[in-house]
Amino acid sequence: MASLSRKQILKKKLIYFRHCFDKRRQIIIFISLFVTIITIIIFILLFNDVPNPQKLTKNPAPVSTQILDRNGKLLYEVYVDQNRQPIKIEDLPNYVKQATIAIEDKNFYHHHGLDTSGIIRAAYNTITGKRLEGGSTITQQLVKIALLSDPRRTLSRKIREAGLAIVTELIYSKNQILELYLNHAPYGGTAYGIETAAKTYFSKNAKDLTLAEAALLAGLPQSPTKYSPFGANPDLAIDRQHSVLRRMVEDGYITKEEAETAQKETLKFASNINTIKAPHFVLMVKDLITEEYGEELVNFGGLKVTTSLDLDLQEYTESSLAAEIKKVEKLNVSNGATLITKPKTGEILVMVGSKNYFDLDNDGNVNLTTRLRQPGSSIKPLNYAVGLLKGWTASTMYLDFPTCFSVTNQKKYCPKNYDNSFHGPVQMRFALGNSYNIPAVKQLALNGIDAMIATASAMGIKTWTDTNRFGLSLTLGGGEVTMWDMTEAFGTFANSGIHVPLNPILKVETYSHQILEETKTDEVSDLVSSLPENWDTFWKNSDKTKCLSKNSQTSIDQKHNEVCVNVALPEEVSYIISHILLDNNARTAAFGSNNLLTIPGKTVSVKTGTTNDLRDNWTIGFTPEFLVATWVGNNDNSPMSQITSGITGAAPIWHSLTKYLLKDQPNQFPKQPDGIEFHNICTSTGLLPNPENPCDTRSELFIKNHLPPQNISTRKQIWVRRSDKYPLLAGDQTIDLDLEEHTVLSDPFAKDFCLDCGYPQNDKGNILWPETTVDYNNFQLDLPQPQTYLEIIPTP
């Protein structure tokens, strides 16, 4: 076959390439048509039911979110109706508009509905996990508030929002859009629009707002719950106001001097006109569900939130607390707070954050149950629990007389007792019952500060994170805590060593009855009742956390789908501490036999606490089923009267509430673990009786197989002054001495305290006790230490 000429070859190639080109063009045309059709379909699906932006003046119809008590009684309706009073933009001061633009959309007058730089920044921050950010312009926010009913953050909704924003910018002028936004924006509760917000928060028209007031209101729409001055954290509203003013300075709307003047302005808020019951509790719950589900779902999604609160008990507590505070006003006590809980489930039955939430002039809306305060001696049971963990017993004897602790580069620490006196040899039961300070400090020195912090953390104390700043005063209240945390810690004793976090929410469901989260309290109670560990198991078992799945029909709330509790103490340790705190005989020396810490016919473990500077006064008591914590003091941290004591202030409130709470309840004594034994011990030494050294005895509780040694001879030859038979004290230069046999006692810090010697007195008749200085940095325990913290089944 003859070969083809060059010309023929070129012709064939040209035909081939033309054929390929036509085929590719057909493919491209087909793909283009396919993409166009798909795009049109997506566009139709996304925008077929989108409302016309010209309907922006019409009100949306959201469903209200209801917050209910445990019995279904309405506490608060997050949305009842959009209370809106429209206002013309020309009637507003310029700084009202400027403040909104500065904090919400600085490029408002320079974009056409979408802010590209804001979208990029928001996307970057969201992808990198810095913070969730929308990047929405004022126009987008207006569309979202007024036109789009779906509150979920989905891609389709964001596309709709962007498209509607562009169309809205074509229909309306910038000033019209800003006016619409200012009349639609949510400012908290039922306040929609700047005019209603001005009347709600400041009892004035928007045209009369000052720069400081306008800046505060401008900061609310982004998160009305979080930044509300009527909310649980009113200080966040002021922080937000300062951010608005700073932005206004940066954008050139006001001068730095004007911003500083506005920051210094004292804001006079209107009384919160919303009908709300248990306000501190409700606003806390609203914060929690808003954080979990978002502002839009809470404000417009029609959630039904069933809480743990008992409204009848709440209202009784509010009245009782206010009445008792009135009685002690003469002691310079102006405020109080109370939590009542069910330890086994963590349910909050009552939360009273102040005597009057609506007294805004005196910071009544500040929730004292979640604010840091010093616990005073109410923290001591945690310290003694650590002592029991380390093998010291409830009969451990301390010498309660002047003792100073020397720490390198620090001022010598010399604790004093609340009654400014000393009590000689005192055993743990009576040291804790009577709340003596020096034995508590000695016990902490034996435990180690790190050990107390670790155990307190396991029991629920979450505020002792900067461990380097704490010293031996920690056991006297030197570390700030919240009532919330103290309630969890004391609940651990009530639960036989199981720490259960507080839980204010029982169920969250949508208006269509879809359950988002639910806690089955009976299952939690059964779990807690089955978890206590005896001494041996506690030290062997490294898995201290147990979890119980909640009932959940959605994946919205994954992190709330289980309840987790922690085995913080052996049941024997919890029982001994609880038993000491219910033993009225153990506290009689300090409180008298007839005191406010006893409830007739009921067995209640209870501890008081008053700080040395008299700024905080606590009483916390519990049974296996209920816990009541009370606090009194002053919001401004000013001290109470010098005559305030452990049985004034908080104790009468606690007594009244506990008596009312338990009046129809059967008496419950803590369940005694199998690992607890009663043994007779010597009343003078706390040691077991010894036939060779007989002694007077009393009965005491011990962990099985963890007993003190037998009593040793306490008679010893010591030098006494011949003239008055007083033992030698520090610095005594007397040489006219006699060697006599006397009864002496020692503790790990002081040796040979003469029990049956006389001691000199000063001109006021006070005993001149012997003094001891302990080098805390180089402290060596002369007596055998029972065990090392966290050793497995240590032997004393």
Full CATH superfamily name of the domain at 55-64 and 80-277: Biosynthetic peptidoglycan transglycosylase-like
The overall strand count is 22
Q: Using the CA coordinates, give the radius of gyration.
A: 35 Å
> Which class do the helix and strand fractions yield?
alpha+beta
Strand order of the largest sheet: 2-1-3-10-11
Shape: elongated
CATH topology of the domain at 55-64 and 80-277: Penicillin binding protein transpeptidase fold
Uncertain residue ranges: 41-48, 130-134, 552-559, 783-796
Strand content: 15-25%
Termini separation: 111 Å
Level-2 CATH architecture of the domain at 55-64 and 80-277? Orthogonal Bundle
Number of helical stretches of at least 4 residues: 24
- Helix fraction, binned, reads 25-40%
The major beta sheet can be summarized as:
5 strands, mixed
By CATH reckoning, the class of the domain at 55-64 and 80-277 would read Mainly Alpha
In short:
The chain is α+β, with helices and mostly antiparallel strands. It is elongated and about 135 Å long.
Topology, please?
Blueprint: H1 6-47, E1 66-68, E2 74-77, H2 94-104, H3 116-128, H4 138-146, H5 155-171, H6 174-184, H7 194-202, H8 211-218, H9 224-227, H10 234-250, H11 256-264, H12 279-293, H13 295-300, E3 304-307, H14 311-327, E4 335-342, E5 347-352, H15 380-389, E6 397-400, E7 403-406, E8 424-427, H16 428-433, H17 437-447, H18 449-459, H19 483-494, E9 498-499, E10 505-509, E11 515-518, H20 521-530, H21 535-540, E12 545-549, E13 562-567, H22 571-582, H23 584-591, E14 605-610, E15 616-622, E16 627-633, H24 650-662, E17 676-682, E18 697-703, E19 715-721, E20 737-747, E21 750-754, E22 772-775
Parallel strand pairs: 1-3, 7-22
Antiparallel strand pairs: 1-2, 3-10, 4-5, 4-16, 6-8, 9-13, 10-11, 12-13, 14-15, 15-16, 17-18, 19-20, 20-21
